[in-house]
Design a protein that fits this description.
0% strand; membrane; transmembrane helix; AtpZ/AtpI family protein; ATPase_put; transmembrane
Length: 52
């Protein structure tokens, strides 16, 4: 979970540097997307393990 969030943040930082974005918008967006995807995957795994 932490690794995917970290890579989302790194991708955002890369895009911010590439586009010259000083407000770090891409970094914030991709970090949040990675957090939501990680939470979704954990919830899906818990639901799947409970149904077995």
């Amino acid at each position: 979970m932490a690794v995917s969030i970290y890579f989302g943040h790194l991708l955002g930082q890369y895009l911010d540097q590439k586009t010259g974005n000083a407000s770090e918008l891409y970094s914030k967006i991709f970090t949040l997307v990675a957090v939501f995807l990680s939470i979704f995957m954990v919830i899906r795994t818990v639901i799947k393990s409970n149904s077995d």
